[in-house]
Amino acid sequence: MKKSVKDKTAMSVHERDSISVRKDRLMEAALGLFADYGFHGVAVPKIAKVAGIATGSVYNYFKGKEELVNELFWFWKQKLKEFLLTDFPATATTREQFEFIWQRLHAFTDTYPKAFQFIEGQLHANYLTVRCKDLEEEVFEIGRSFVYGGQAAGVIHDADPQMIVAIFFGTFVQFFKDCRAGRQEWSLEHSLFVRDFCWQAMRKA
Description:
This protein has helices spanning 13-37, 44-51, 65-85, 94-111, 113-120, 130-152, 161-180, 188-202. By secondary structure, it is mainly α.
């Protein structure tokens, strides 16, 4: 009787699960480190150490740090996009749509603060792939489309839509950064105050 030979191309469920768990640990470690220290402030050995795996093992999952940061950016930016689009009230008033967008921004950031800190720290970085930059524009287009609709309804100022997106989204980002730095308190009450301030700035009198 011939001795059975294990097919080395086939992985057991346990092996696949172990690989998935190690990759998840690696991405979680990288997320926290990139958020706190930036892409250039973190070396691969540090990511591996925090993840609890050997440095050489990182390259079993990613070709290098750039591929890792791009996969992280894509995952979290796509999640933010889904937050903004799911159940978007297309037939609601401009004010109601703005309140929805702000609520979803706040909910995403409240639930995933490290992820929001991370993706906002990577904008326009030269190491992002075209795929990631295109996704970034898709998220901005959600805001621009909202502004186009509000302008067509005669509710929002007739300024460059991207400029108006920058007013409310940039203000939200700065509010978040101030809270992280301890200059303000992160709370829904304060967030809504900032929201209403932005609304007054962009609406027609």
